[in-house]
Request: fold
Amino acid sequence: MKIIEGNIASPLGFLADGKHVGLKNDKKDMGMLYSTVPAQAAAVFTTNVMKAAPIFVTKDAWQTDGTLQAVIVNSGNANACTGTQGLDDAKTMQQVAAAQLGLAPEAVAVASTGMIGVSLPMPKITAGIAQMDVKNGVSADFAQAILTTDTQSKEIVVTQEIGGQLVTMAGCAKGSGMIHPNMATMLGFITTDAKIDQQLLQATLASTTEVTFNQITVDGDTSTNDMVIVLANGQANNPEITADTPEYVQFLEMFKHVMGELAKKIAQDGEGATKLIEVTVKNATNELDARMMAKKIVGSSLVKTAIFGSDPNWGRIICALGYSGGVIDPASIDIQLGSQTVLQDSTPVTFDDDLMTSELEQAKVSIVVDVKQGSATGLAWGCDLTYKYVEINALYDTSKAGGSL
Reply:
């Protein structure tokens, strides 16, 4: 497997565009993704009961026959908590995009992100869709158009020979605040020219989401609009990938890498963040326990603020472990911060203060916890909690809306 330069349209048969159409002040705010042929599609959606209108429209389209051919997405406005008008507007987005591309409406997915509780400015939306030009547009701009408070786009492209053919897979995502997945909590798009069975693709997305996107947390909030869509259009002309084959092992390797890297990019770009925190819990009774404990630690506000202050406060780590619900022996916990052990068999260990400070000031901080109860390992990713996070989320002008995501 090779990591290459590229964008969401790098796999064969995909085109994309992104433009500024006036939904935000000066940044790109609308994107279109298109496959030249119908693609096998997989999708996962937010578990928040308060789902935004695009979730319903996209789910209905995807469930028609398991295929999609295009995605239209806007940022700057979530079209969430907007009643029947919001649902009508999401359907209009779908229909206008479909007409422009010469597709049936059910071939088009719709996604939105931004301010909650404000109706879409439909004249700008429809005029913006008319500006989309996937054949001549700048494909890399799609990843920019989906961002909200993100400081940078999040993309990755990988290739590998499968079944005698070169297969390419690309992904891009947005996510910075309101990140605490109980499915996705983000917008994520993955394209591949691989040929793969649709049911297998869906199962792969569901299972891989559990160990990647569901293992990141920034602030503990699960938003209303989140979805991940995977499109596989088969244009690499490889023999169809099926379960329990060497080809599927290769595909899964690519898929896990793409989703894992996107997950870490989201965690690292948390609102106001200065550091990526990676927590590994090892030797747990089972994988679910390990993942749950790791996520509790990385989600702890006290742990996050300690990391922001470069403070080796292992007491906050073991405290979060204690209320995680995982199986532990309180007398036999080991904790490693960076390269140094700070707790062994639940007893403090002397460490090098200068080295510790240096390591905690790095852009990535690792925490490893050994619970000595089994052989399972779980990972989770998050970021530090900073003054800037409070500033960003305190200064939204929500006098005319309910919030932002």
Summary: The two ends are 34 Å apart (CA to CA).
